Amino acid sequence: MSSLPPFAAVVLAGGKAARLGGRPKPQLEVGGRTMLDSVLAALDGAAPRVVVGPPQPVPAGVLLVRESPPGGGPVPALAAGLVAAGDAEVVAVLAADLPFVTVDVVTALRERLTGDGVLVVDDTGRDQLLLGVWRTAVLRAATAGARPHAPLRGVLAPLAVRRYRPVVKGGSPAPWTDCDTPSGVARARAVRPPAHG
């Protein structure tokens, strides 16, 4: 969609993954590729693509940065990613554990960007704070000076946010499906087993 403005992408890939036995959650495979690779594929066309988190494999051309302090939570991670996002006016912000997010969902968010940002609302009506597209300058201002472990919801609350509820076709996994627990990973793998051949 050439009519859409260029955009950067920040993927939050931190956390200790304590519920997953300490393994780096973004590097767990669903459908034959890591969850991080799936999220980065959905952000095709973004420049730069920035991953924020501990040292881990990332594809060529993807920037890997660390929040300060390390392990300080999503707000410092977002702030660090926004620094690395350069001068892009628009930024997509996604969690790294969304194996079913697609280019179409990201494009739909970009198309709906009005005000400060737009984010996905799931089928329970809950805002998916790490599945949205934002004005970069607004997010930079909102995260400036935020303390470690500050709740992201509180930082974003004052912003003018539009909600988008994607239509999920029957039998298809929802794009907001995350994998926070071993059972969540197992369910995702059952929905999309590795392709063979």
Automatic annotation (TrEMBL):
InterPro entries: MobA-like_NTP_Trfase (IPR025877), Nucleotide-diphossugar_trans (IPR029044). This is Molybdopterin-guanine dinucleotide synthase. Pfam families: NTP_transf_3. Residues 9-156 form the MobA-like NTP transferase domain. It comes from Modestobacter italicus (strain DSM 44449 / CECT 9708 / BC 501). Keywords: Transferase. GO terms for molecular function: nucleotidyltransferase activity. The gene is mobA. It comes from the Bacteria.
